[in-house]
Amino acid sequence: MPHRLVLLGVVVALSLLVAPSAPAITSAQCDTQVNDTPSKLIPCIKTADLWAHMQAFQAIADANPGPDGHPSRNSGEPGYKASADYVASVMNAAGYDVTLQRYKFLYYTFIGTPAFSEVLPTAKTYVLNTDWGAGQSKGVANAQLQPAGGIVLPPTQTSSSTSGCTSGDFNGFVAGRIALIQRGGCNFGVKVQNAQAAGASGVIIFNEGNPGRTDLLIGSIVDAAGTPFVPMIPVAFTTFAIGQDLLNQSHSGPAPTMNISVRATVDPNRDDWNVIAESKGGDKNHVLVVDAHLDAIYGAGMLDNASGSATILDVAQMMKNVNPVNKLRFIWFGGEELGLLGSAYYVNNLSSNDLSHIGYDLDADVTATPNYIIGVLDPAAPDFFGGQVTNTFPNRVYKASTIARDQAVGYFDSIRKNHEFLAPTGTDAINFNQVGVPASGLLTGQDCCKSQHEVDLFGGYLGNYEGNIPSFDGGCVDNPFLWCDNLSNNDQDVFTFMSKAFASMVVQMAFDTKIMSSSNSVVYKKKLPIASDVGRHPTR
After folding, report:
1. What pLDDT is stored for residue 388 in this prediction?
2. CA 275, 277, 279: angle at the middle one, nearest 5?
3. Would you say residue 54 has pLDDT above 80?
4. Pair 462, 452: CB distance under 8 Å
5. Do 157 and 89 reside in the same domain of the chain?
6. Are 275 and 98 in contact (CB under 8 A)?
7. Quick check: 290 and 432 in contact, CB under 8 A?
8. What is the Cα–Cα distance from 29 to 43, expressed in whole angstroms?
9. To 10 degrees, the CA torsion angle through 452, 456, 462, 466?
């Protein structure tokens, strides 16, 4: 993995953040005192309180199994609504003004376990999540394979295939067959739409075969405009090696007969909720948004993102007696795992006047990873999930985002921990960046794979950030049909020091008197983007 941008700061005086010689404060004292400085707030962020919220979220998931029978807090399911109600109850009890913002979305969930096999001439069952992955689709196909046009073999050094990207790639296609298509050239959904128009009963998309494009990938199915849809024929994603083998069989003899089965529930108009809780004090024209996504994916979602949700919930509770300069707006977003749906709905439905009053966003997205990194969000930094950053934001975003970013750096320096800067790609913070709101935040990593460079910085092991450690099997969070992102997938020590760091950012920004204008005086030194090799559900 190419190195991400890392700054090793000079250790600052601990007294700037927390008094090291002060006696331990009790929970009762924390509950009654005004925690309006880092030195007061940070000692009140306690493991027991954080973990109590995690246990509550796990209990909610356990009591609300999804359609697959496993614990679930996925958007659009009872476990998510129960999580939203829990957060709302806690925040109401803490004295915040709470609303639940409802929105509609396209709900999709697998029923049972998808299957993919070769029936003839040689019976062969492919291993889910190793050999292949099911696209979000619905249907069963048992038919002979037929390759689409445009397949490039041997693959070129860089991506060049446009297989399936035009209707002409299906000239002569026999209706009812399963289309074999190579990755490359257009969105996966465009390939599927063209195959459907030609009468395909199913689609197999194999990786292109260029360097870095050989392993299994499970893509997002979106059309040419980037809009997600659910095709009513099954879609299987597979490795380059398996795709090449199927293509060779088709060329050397009768094309193989394949079976793809993807059963699912689809609801284009499912309810979901954002939980919004505002402080009673603070300037309503100067708003600090503090957010985490509340939804899970593939189960209980305890690391991703009950951890971040619990972090901001505990910070909010410990600041309930504070009268901040800037109004605090804590938001737990739904639908993040499905494409940042909740935050997009929230931002898109703000009036221009309301949007103009939001000065900053702080995001907590995964804060308790066992084999952790310490990532501090910076919109000009490398992308943790998918390579070079291509987003361009107003200059104010780049300049002012360094304010809270550097506050986090100061805290990590004070506890003698390294850090790295990462772009907010894949987090709700990016929806604020895109409308001109500066943002920072924290994350600790998920899935795979921790590099030697990161091991040197943070300790731990090569490979998975979470799940089986040490291992390179991809972890729990974004792997379907494993259902292992439970309480045991979190580290309490990491959870605590990351939550304390986040608290230090929130309380400082709550009293930042230049939150709406400080970008004009900030000197920003743009960082060079450095590619990361960690992918997350590409669309093409």
Report:
1. 55
2. 170
3. yes
4. yes
5. no
6. yes
7. no
8. 11
9. -130
Q: What is the C-alpha to C-alpha distance for residues 396 and 357, in angstroms, rounded to an integer? A: 15
Q: What helix, strand, coil percent values describe the chain, rounded to 5?
A: 30, 20, 45
Helix (H, G, I), strand (E, B) or coil at 139: strand
In 3D, which of 319, 330, 326 has the Cα closest to residue 283? 326
**Neighbouring residues of 380: CB distance < 8 A, sequence distance ≥ 6:** 389, 398, 401, 423, 526, 527, 529
Q: How far apart are CA 79 and CA 304, in angstroms?
A: 15
Is 222 found in the same domain as 316? no
Higher-confidence residue: 8 or 394? 394
Q: Decide which of 262, 284, 317 is a domain's last residue.
A: 262
In a domain, 525, yes or no: no
Which pTM does this prediction carry? 0.89
* Cα 94 off chain centre by: 28
Instruction: Report the alpha-carbon distance of residue 133 to residue 183 in Å, rounded.
Output: 14
pLDDT tens by residue, 202-242: 999 999 999 999 999 999 999 999 889 999 999 999 999 99
Host H or E run for residue 443: strand 439-443
Residue 38 counted as domain residue: yes
Helix 492-510, helix 308-318: angle, nearest 10? 50
Claim to verify: residue 186 and residue 286 sit in the same structural domain: no
Is 529 part of a structural domain of the chain?
no
Backbone angles phi, psi at 230, to 5 degrees: -110, 105
Instruction: Kindly report the CATH number assigned to the domain that includes residue 410.
Output: 3.40.630.10
- pLDDT tens per residue, range 256-312: 999 999 999 999 999 999 999 999 999 999 999 999 999 999 899 999 999 999 999
3-state secondary structure 263-281: CEEEEEEEEEEEEEEECCC
Q: Mark out the alpha helices in 281-320 (DSSP H runs).
A: 308-318
Shared domain for 135 and 47, answered yes or no, is no
Q: How confident is the model at residue 12 (pLDDT cuts 50, 70, 90)?
A: very low
Residue 53 to residue 403: CA distance in whole angstroms:
29
67, part of any domain = yes
Please check the confidence at residue 67 and state whether its pLDDT lies above 50.
Answer: yes
